[in-house]
Amino acid sequence: MAAHFYVTLPSNSSFQYFPDNTLSSFTTQLAEPILLTGSWEVALCEIQYPFNWHNVTASNCRIRLNDREICIPHGYYDTMQDVIDKFHELLTEDERNNVKIYQQKHNLRTTYKLKTGTTLALQGMSRMFGFLENNKVCTEGFTVSDISSDVHSGLTSFFVYSDIVEHQRVGDTHVPLLRVVRIGTRKAGEHVTVWYNSPHYVPVKSKHISTIGIDLRTDLGDVVPF
User: Record's superkingdom (predicted)?
Assistant: First the structure.
């Protein structure tokens, strides 16, 4: 076998063997097994993916205003102001008089102005709006978020794991990490290609490889929502 070689892993190439494959988590059945002798390392040289995920989904779309639950329509929102505008759009005239949300331009924190007797529970949108609590409840008066709001809820990179690599130290765990992929500034619907001129190599754990599994996760361990 040559001293180095490439393996390309399309996410849709092995449905007959692995019908549950998705863009974010898939296993490829190789045409023939890879048989290795000695010590080998592997690196991610190129990755292609669609920037098509929604930043408002079923898990983070709900806000409770007093006794009414408001669901922001699922989709991709370019800016935090777009999310705030959509929230205000969904309010009745009376509700608009009782609650106002602003984004501060100088630090991107969100400010909440609620009239007497009004409560606003941000539920799954708390992180996006800049609160450290999982279900921030704002009450009458003024409330300012703990940190800057983030329309991507911290999803600025994703982790590529593979079942053929040795476990690596990541924080307080050991995981089969192949590479961390930075997302950067993208446009909705863009097809992204990233090429690494200086690949980061990690040890291969097996000498006999007939399948290769790939798993793409956020820093919180959630599947990347392609």
Answer: Eukaryota
CA neighbor of 63 nearest in space, from 172, 136, 115, 113: 136
Indicate the pTM of the whole model. 0.79
Choose among 118, 176, 113, 185: nearest CA to 155: 185
Residue among 153, 102, 145, 86 at smallest CA distance from 124: 153
pLDDT digits (tens, 9 = 90+) for 7-63: 999 999 999 999 999 999 999 999 999 999 999 999 999 999 998 888 998 889 999
Report residue 57 as tokens. 């989904």
- Phi, psi for 72 (deg, rounded to 5): -70, 130
> Measuring CA to CA, which residue among 118, 108, 40 is closest to residue 79?
108
Distances (CA, A) of 148 to 9, 44, 87, 135: 38, 33, 18, 16
Per-residue exposure over 168-197, b if at least 16 CB sit within 10 Å of its own CB, e if not: eeeeeeebbbbbebebeeeeeeeeeeeeee
CA–CA dist 131, 136 (Å, integer): 7
Q: How, if at all, do strands 25-35 and 173-175 pair?
A: unpaired
